Amino acid sequence: MDEQKRYPLNQLLTSLVPGLVVDAAWLKAQGISRTSIHDYVQHGWLERIAPRVYRRPTAAGGESSLRWDIAIVSAQRIGTPTFYAGGLTALELLGQGHYARLGAERTVHLYDPQGTAPSWLLALSTDATMILHKRKLFADPELGLEWRRLDFGTGRIGATVPSPDPREPWDYFMRIAGAERAAVEMMEMVGATLGFEHADIVFEGLTTLRPRLLSSLLESCESVRAKRLFLLFTDRHGHGWAKHLYRENVNLGRGKRQIVPGGRLDPRYQITVPRDFAAKAGETAQ
After folding, report:
1. What is the pLDDT of residues 150-174, one digit of tens each?
2. Is residue 210 assigned to a domain?
3. pLDDT tens by residue, 196-208
4. Are 273 and 281 in contact (CB under 8 A)?
5. How confident is the model at residue 84 (pLDDT cuts 50, 70, 90)?
6. Does residue 63 lie within any of the structural domains?
7. Radius of gyration, CA atoms only, the chain
8. 62 located within any domain
9. What is d(CA 17, CA 11) in angstroms, rounded to the nearest whole number?
10. Measured between alpha carbons, how far is 184 from 103 in angstroms, rounded to an integer?
């Protein structure tokens, strides 16, 4: 290999950690031509895992399946990282959604109201099913989001960081919703793809939420359904932070909302919920 091609290869081996995923556009931005990409694949320096999507093989010769968290971290590193893992997925990553995964197949919830997730991300074959939520739930798109360090070995989320340092290719970060934002996002799923009992178990464990941030999120939230359900669960469980929640500026809209067909109307929040659940919620709120 001549020196002209060797320099981009050396740069690639320095900046691309084994296992991480990149697309052809990123490789081109590093000065690697289409012909060189083909050569790198032929020599085993790159592995093609989808059309125009590649990864640098690991020392063991690559993995049979791509981990979902590595796919997300990779996409957030090379693109415009406004999309994030949220809802039940974020709560589980933060250790506050122990009951969020029921069954063998894992579902990962990604939120992308600004439409910046690369199209190839959901097309990848990973060890989870990714669901992309595009609806804008908050007027403030950044409120309650966090960058968290990710341990590739264990898949565990670590401490928050202000923002990833692109000069550290061996340091991994994932953009996720903080527990407060994720809890509100979870409410949007209740009665649709998430059962009340399931959400109730998760909410029971949310004992350390920050009331000031929650108040701001509820004011910013544009889903009347999510806000009413969140406050219903708040009244039901009576966590310590609930008494510090500022509700006066939370717009709950007007009129009734049917969450569960044939359910019972909750008189305070004007939503229909399961009959047994409504009775328990009423008893708890008294």
Report:
1. 988 888 898 888 888 766 777 889 9
2. yes
3. 999 999 999 999 9
4. yes
5. very high
6. no
7. 22
8. no
9. 11
10. 23
Q: Sorting pLDDT into bands at 50, 70 and 90, what band is 138?
A: very high
How many domains does the chain contain in total? 2
Report the alpha-carbon distance of residue 174 to residue 169 in Å, rounded: 13
Q: Which residue has the tokens 């600004």?
A: 114
Listed in sequence order, the DSSP H helices in the chain are 3-15, 24-29, 34-43, 68-78, 87-93, 119-123, 179-187, 196-204, 211-220, 224-237, 275-285
Query: Does residue 245 sit in the same domain as residue 124?
Result: yes
Q: Which of 234, 69, 84 lies closest to 152, judged by CA?
A: 69
CA distance 116 to 128: 20
Largest CA distance in the chain: 78
Domain with 122 in it: 68-285
Q: How far apart are CA 250 and CA 35, in angstroms?
A: 57
- Nearest Cα residue to 40 out of 64, 22, 65, 63: 22
